[in-house]
Hints:
The chain is of the alpha+beta class and 245 residues long. The chain has three domains: 2-54, RNA-binding S4 domain (Structural Genomics Hypothetical 15.5 Kd Protein In mrcA-pckA Intergenic Region, Chain A, Roll); 62-125 and 212-243, Pseudouridine synthase I, catalytic domain, N-terminal subdomain (Alpha-Beta Plaits), CATH 3.30.70; 130-209, Alpha-Beta Plaits. The protein has six helices and 17 strands. The strands form four sheets. Strands 7, 8, 9, 10, 13, 14, 15, 16 and 17 form a nine-stranded mixed beta sheet that branches. A hairpin with a 6-residue loop joins strand 8 and strand 9.
Amino acid sequence: xxxxxxxxxxxxxxxxxxxxxxxxxxxxxxxxxxxxxxxxxxxxxxxxxxxxxxxxxxxxxxxxxxxxxxxxxxxxxxxxxxxxxxxxxxxxxxxxxxxxxxxxxxxxxxxxxxxxxxxxxxxxxxxxxxxxxxxxxxxxxxxxxxxxxxxxxxxxxxxxxxxxxxxxxxxxxxxxxxxxxxxxxxxxxxxxxxxxxxxxxxxxxxxxxxxxxxxxxxxxxxxxxxxxxxxxxxxxxxxxxxxxx
Length: 245
């Protein structure tokens, strides 16, 4: 027996928090009866419906995916561009991307059908480190990199402190390779941060997510996360929420 909101989250309908809201709003039925109380548990044979639609229970699956450039991080695209889903025709479960990577950004992306897990990785209170490698125009001065470390003013507020490392500089081509680690997930944040200090991004790749990296994968390839890796991510996220309050 599992809590009703957890079953809804695992079915990929919504995060656990949103599932709780749906229950309280009377939009969930169990065996034809409306349930408005949290804490109700259901078994494998119980029929659960959300907004009149029966949910199909799936075992949770988790993949680490190396997203190529010029691929959209969405389930469907109205412009008929290639999406991350095109790389998982062999997966019967209804998976979706956790968070986003820009069309022209490559790198590490998690794919799952576990709504609760996805919420933990993307909710602002769970601060998971994400490390990017950026090739930028020009060679930033130390003071400019310090700005990134302290936080820069963007139109949606000041960014949280970041970790920044200049990996290399090509004075002939006037470009630099910089490693940047942040835990926020605002839209196009890394690109906007570098634009703010006057060094636009030419190429961007998400290299790591927490302790995960792309070792052994080429662009377009994926591998299942191990149960231990999934548990580690959950523990790490919850610990970060407690230590960074």
